[in-house]
Structure formats: C-alpha cells, structure tokens
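anyone seen this seq b4? input:
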Amino acid sequence: VQLVESGGGLVQAGGSLRLSCAASGSTFSINLMGWYRQAPGKQRELVAAITSGGGGTNYADSVKGRFTISRDNAKNTMYLQMNSLKPEDTAVYYCNAVTGVSNNYWGQGTQVTVSS
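predicted toks r here
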C-alpha cells in the first residue's frame, strides 16, 4: 500500500484546509485509515480514524467539532476537512492505513501551519 498526502499549507487562525490521502496498491486489504500529526518536539498523535466502510469514525478530543474525516472508496482517497484552525494545530500531518491485524503504512507527511 502506498499513501500520498496533499493539501497542507499556511493558513490564518480560524481558517480551513482540506487534506487528501490517495492510496494505491493493495487498497482492498485496508481495514482502517487515519490521520496522525506530529508537532516539533512532540510525539505523533492520532487526530482521526475511519473504518473501511466509512461508518465508524473516531476523533481526538482536541479536534472534535472542528475536523471531519471521510473516505471515498471508489477513488481510494481519504480526506480530513479542518475548520476553525488554531495555531496549536500546526504540525506535520501523516496519513495511515492498517491492513490485516496490524500492518501499518504511512505517507510522507504534509505540513500544516496555522498563524495567529
């Protein structure tokens, strides 16, 4: 499975961005997908996750009500709509896919910078 993120950039506080993660390869084997982020000097953390059918989602408390995760299986693409962005959302955002029991695949990451 190969993952490629896009959509990061610089935005002012209160603004919005939409991240995309395009999956290729053995996409039929993906069970779970998610977005993680890592800020400088901090550990990578889960932002949001979504099940293969898209019916189940999970969010970090810090982004609930502001971020929405979705996926379009026909396009093999996952999205993260980020609204009401805050400076503390600044981080490198990574796309993650899980196949089988616990085989993890990662994208290269995309930078999101929120200015105050």
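The first strand starts at residue 2 and ends at 6. The radius of gyration is 13 Å. kinda curious what u guys think
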